[in-house]
Amino acid sequence: MLRGKTILLGVTGSIAAYKAANLTSLLKKRGCDVHVIMTQNATNFINPITFETLTEHKCLIDTFDRNFQYNVEHIALAKKADGVLIAPASANVIGKMANGIADDMLTTTVMACTCPVILAPAMNTNMFRNPIVQDNMDKLRRFGYHIVQPATGLLACGDVGEGKMPEESLLIAAIEKEIACAKDMTGMNVLVTAGPTQESMDPVRYITNHSTGKMGYELAKAAMLRGAKVTLVSGQTSLTPPPFVDVVKIKSAQDMFEAVTSRAPECDLVIKAAAVADYTPATVNEDKTKKKDGDMSIPLVRTQDILKYLGEHKKPGQQLCGFSMETRDMLENSRVKLEKKNADMIVANNLKVSGAGFGTDTNIVTLITRDNVEELPIMSKAEVAHAILDKLKAMRGE
Questions:
Q1: 6-179 sits in which CATH class?
Q2: Buried (b) or exposed (e) across 188-209, using 16+ Cβ within 10 A?
Q3: How far apart, in Å, do the first and last CA atoms of the chain sit?
Q4: Of 85, 232, 311, 348, which one has the fewest beta carbons inside 10 Å?
Q5: 157 classed as catalytic
Q6: Residue from 157, 181, 267, 321 carrying the catalytic annotation
Q7: pLDDT tens for residues 254-303?
Q8: Which CATH architecture describes the domain 189-395?
Q9: Are 16 and 88 in contact (CB under 8 A)?
């Protein structure tokens, strides 16, 4: 998603400056053209040669340094950048930027940038909590800058608290969030369900299914990257939730029903990608079951139909997308589901087709609406997620 993007990395005077070297390397591995600008104080923590070796570009420090090509001076570099990340961002540089001070190469260049600017504060806990620093960050947010909250843990000074530079993976995710996709879903509230539910039969056994949650997680991530505010209601999975998404963890079908139905009225788009267990153990009076010795059977009742409920309570302008996992008669069964559940679109796939279904990194789906059937070729689930969102956006006339 970042291949071919030009990233301007600002490194300031913080002990966390050494982490910027690995961050640079990871960005390069993703195909980014990385340019590094350091403050003079940052050179006390890490040598500029490190960044020059990693980026194959001169590391800029001095505004008046004439030992570089004219076409990479601060205005040209500001125009070239697709995104700016300042990591670590010291309290000093945050204060300068918030108050329009541009007295070094980094602050001068950032002042000329029109692309997204992300800051990752890293400093002592008391410095970070200082109301002046907090006010400066609030001011930057009002100006459209993006702040990644620091991590909490043991700091270099020996204190324990917030102020650690976030993990490099989170910072790269923050860059992806701002520049990887066009923000064509900005202002939309999106709810996605993912993963399996579990219905306890007794202290040992439970009913579930083979869903891993991969498709739902990719849908939540794709909507987030496109600017939507996303809530992910997730069953029990081993997946790491996508960053910058509100995650609600649930276990049973009833948990999911309550989590979804309480939040759906506020959403513009609801995508039910979760594979909900169809049955849950019934409450039975043991005296009336007349079980024989060794009989382990437990009476079952159907769980509530979440998609049907959402269709019956769909508000004007709201879109509802469901999934259909079939082993035969895929189109016929999916069309019935579309009408019966009052959905706007059903994403159907045949579990017997290689490369589709649970646990795979790819999927082969058919997008079914009242007016159209579109069969997609085999794609990664990330690509499928964007194709689904593209179709739903087109249906909205956007």
A1: alpha beta
A2: bbbbbbbbbbbbebeeeebbbb
A3: 23
A4: 311
A5: yes
A6: 157
A7: 999 999 999 999 999 999 998 887 778 776 444 445 555 555 567 788 88
A8: 3-Layer(aba) Sandwich (3.40)
A9: yes
